[in-house]
Amino acid sequence: MKKLVINFIIPVLACIFISVVNGQNTTTFTFTGINDSSYFQLESINVKNLTQDCDTVLYYPDTVLTIYNVGIKEDNVSNDGYGMMQNYPNPCTDQTSIILHVPQKEMVSITIIDAAGRKIMVSDRLLDKGQHTFLFTPPGEGLYLFNAKWAGTSNTIRILAAGVRNKGSLFLEYSGFAPAETPLKSAFVSQDFLFSPGDELMLIGNGDELESGFLDSPDTDQNYVFQFATNIPCHGLDSLNHDGQWYHTIQVFSQCWIVENMNAGTMIQSAQAQTDNGVVEKYCMGDDPFYCSILGGLYFWNEMMKYTTVSEGQGICPDGFHVPTDLEWQILEGAVDSAYMIGGPEWKVNGWRGFDAGGNLKQTGFDLWEYPNTGATDAYGFSAIPAGYFVQGGFWGPGYKTYIWSSNYYGKYYRNLDWNQAKIQRNTGGSETAFSVRCIRN
User: Fold this and answer.
1) What is the DSSP code string of 299-353?
2) Fewer C-beta within 10 Å: the chain N or C terminus?
3) What's the CA gap between 264 and 305, in Å, rounded?
4) 416 within 8 A of 401, measured Cβ to Cβ
5) 297-330 confidence digits (pLDDT tens)
6) Domain 74-191: CATH superfamily, name plus number
7) Could you give phi then psi for residue 360, rounded to 5 degrees?
């Protein structure tokens, strides 16, 4: 399924973005895209540091990110919305790109100062509301201050030129204009990037109007591969046997999921409580084991996690898999939704969210969902089924609803899909509600 991705086109430059700090060690991330086992060209890569709340974007052909540990964050966005992005790339060997965000049409005065404090260029331009890109060619190696003043608000970035090939050249070229950015599927550029080894990163690859993402907390150089295949078994693992039952796998971009709801453990009657007794216990819809064979078991959060509180814990999942975290669910939602991006603010709130992520995850063709099964396409092979749920007092919702846990102890987030809804719901669950469990590969 195609999705709308609006990218700002950055000219092909000779070097990559580097967050500059003197005297610090570097970490390098190299990115590649594949579709199944074939090469897939990445158009952009968004690296979001969730620990330090910042991000940066690479644009093809730049697929290597070198960063200094730790970076320096500078706030270049004013309260009125005027802002200037850190130049890209930085350091640079020839041209480097600077983006200005202008909230209203106004004269902008640009001043460039060299390391000796000399003004080497002054340029006044009348700029419309929107985003304006400039290409700066430094005359030599060293540090330059790029100052842009709009409506009395002044912003400055530092540009580092290293290994300059065409010394003596000094140019400032107006490159392009884009209207104000849409909040939907649109790539964005950060003005700075901070990183310390072990920070949690959300890595998002874009290409051919598709998105693929995953999480990592690297402490060394890494070679990352984005997978863009869907509707195929996971590489090297078509199926597996766990607790006497066979399960199948599905590749959904860079995530590998087990297709079926988990059906591990021993069925107990709904009148009994699931307890920490060393035995995995499950409820079956209607207290009938037949329904567990079709819909999977229903588990309280503690039982599912085997009474541990470790986010991303294995719980009742097979070896090599774990109960997905809330963030892993957010990546899945953004990857399959046709309107809202991975890592966007849409996925961080509770309630019904997105545009069609729920419909794109719901199973079709087996008549388990009641009519009208709104928006159902099963476009990515996730095949969510309406397994219902259990709460003290009875079973509810088979055919109409499914609720699936995450492994987050704080909040105990779950996802809900409905027969009459194309969106997907995120909410928090109580300890006395039993939901379904899906597993994701480590």
Assistant:
1) B-HHHHTTT---TT--TTSPTTEEPPPHHHHHHHHHHH-SSS-TT-GGGGSSEEE
2) C
3) 12
4) yes
5) 999 999 999 999 887 899 999 999 999 999 999 9
6) Macroglobulin (MG2) domain (2.60.40.1930)
7) -70, -15
